[in-house]
């Protein structure tokens, strides 16, 4: 039997999708929802927390739960797709802003996540993705300099993957991904239009070439109300 808070979550989700609870309006109070569903405050809070984590509401201290616009862009979980490829496919009005492009020496993060030695170097690329005038994705890329000797701002604004495959002749083969929901950082606040959001979806990518060499570690930080992460799965009998 489904937990009560999940049933409440499903019902409120449908009402948000059907515009019964309109974007930019406040949901009924916790007390009103407790009375409506005849449940405890803890049950209501579990449902509201799940709604917030999935980008349907934003809790605002002293005001309540703000209903968010749920028109989300589908972001594929499986497959390796550059932002440029995704934007072209979906016909999005996008701009990439290169905030930082530099060579850095391997620190503890890169030794761990990019398998570098302390003497090796990597490109650090920080880019903001703007969709319809809103800064909604922060991409932090680290690329092993052994495989990509040079990078320019123009390449980073266009497509690093396109450059690697078409100009350098390297074949990008597979990636391992981790997806988490985390609290926003000062860096997120500095680079993104967060509109009072205090949670963010973080996708960490470990990307490999066709010889199984790990060449890129990426941390891609997405505003929760703008993206839906999708996948296709088939059960093998």
From TrEMBL:
Keywords: DNA-binding, Transcription, Transcription regulation. SUPFAM superfamilies: Chorismate lyase-like, Winged helix' DNA-binding domain. The keyword Repeat does not apply. Transmembrane segments: none annotated. Residues 2-70 form the HTH gntR-type domain. This is Trehalose operon repressor. It comes from Clostridium brassicae.
